[in-house]
Amino acid sequence: MSECDAAVDFGRAVRRQRFELGISQEELADRAALHRTYISDVELGTRNVSIKSIAKLARALNLSVPKLFSRADIGPEINRIVEILLVEDNPRDVELALRAFWKAKISNVVNVARDGVEALEHLFGKGEAKNPVLPGVILLDLFLPKVDGLEVLRRIKKDKSTRQIPVIVLTASNRESDIAECQRLGVDKYIVKPVGFRNFSDITPSLGLNWTLQRPLAKDAG
């Protein structure tokens, strides 16, 4: 499928879902915080849509990103998008992390889980709670409500479907016991907050590039 064909099919999917919701282009633009002309171009298939805008459109249309792509009949392409799961309950720290991504020019879709239960549902839940596409990297706080970060990490590393996902711990804890347990469980990085651009710059040489690349197509894997 060419880029032009994919854009047209994606535009049709956006228009179809908008019609089903019974909303105008103006209302969709308002919901997605995008210009109405932008929405019109997307629906006509004449606009190259960024990953960030795709995520905005999906939320505005009450769909997950994978479901929006599946409606466009280009479902396999969504498996190439490397998503980031940020597990953090502090709104300020979420904002700092997202700002660091922006400064580092990391434009991947970022899903935020506000507690341990929400993170586990995102990874292992059923139905609407489960994300059909596993994240390419997980950023995990240790001090979480409901289920703490260490338990989330244990579940991730225990399950064969998720144990290979890189996990970066972002935490205020510098306790040796926490560091040792995270290392035992196989985290890729352990970063003590506050999270700033400098901290993320330290890890982007080894992991940042992987977040911005798409996963290879199945035919390229072997």
Write the layout of secondary structure elements.
Blueprint: H1 3-21, H2 25-32, H3 36-44, H4 51-60, H5 65-71, H6 75-78, E1 84-87, H7 91-103, E2 110-113, H8 116-124, E3 137-140, H9 149-158, E4 167-171, H10 176-185, E5 189-192, H11 197-212
Primary descriptors:
Rossmann fold, disordered C terminus, 5 strands, single chain, 2 domains, 434 Repressor (Amino-terminal Domain), 222 residues
What does it look like?
The protein has 222 residues and is of the alpha/beta class. It folds into 2 domains: 3-78, Orthogonal Bundle (434 Repressor (Amino-terminal Domain)); 84-212, Response regulator (Rossmann fold), CATH 3.40.50. The protein has helices spanning 3-21, 25-32, 36-44, 51-60, 65-71, 75-78, 91-103, 116-124, 149-158, 176-185, 197-212; strands at residues 84-87, 110-113, 137-140, 167-171, 189-192. The protein has a 5-stranded parallel beta sheet with strand order 2-1-3-4-5, with helices on both faces. α9 packs parallel to α10. The longest helix is centred in the N-terminal third of the chain and has 19 residues, at 3-21.
Short description:
By secondary structure, the protein is α/β, with parallel strands linked by helices. It is built from eleven helices and five strands; from the N terminus they run ααααααβαβαβαβαβα.
Biggest pleated-sheet summary: 5 strands, parallel
Annotated CATH architecture of the largest domain: 3-Layer(aba) Sandwich
Considering the protein shown, what is the CATH homologous superfamily of the largest domain? Response regulator
Overall pLDDT confidence: 79
Helix content: 40-55%
Order of helices and strands: HHHHHHEHEHEHEHEH
Q: Strand portion, in percent?
A: 5-15%
CATH class of the largest domain: Alpha Beta
Low-pLDDT regions: 75-79, 213-222
Number of domain units: 2
Shape: elongated
Rg over C-alpha atoms, rounded to the nearest angstrom: 18 Å
Give me the side-by-side strand order of the main sheet: 2-1-3-4-5
The secondary-structure class comes to alpha/beta
**Oligomeric state, counting identical vs distinct chains:** single chain
Terminal CA distance: 21 Å
Task: List the total number of helices.
Answer: 11
Overall strand count: 5
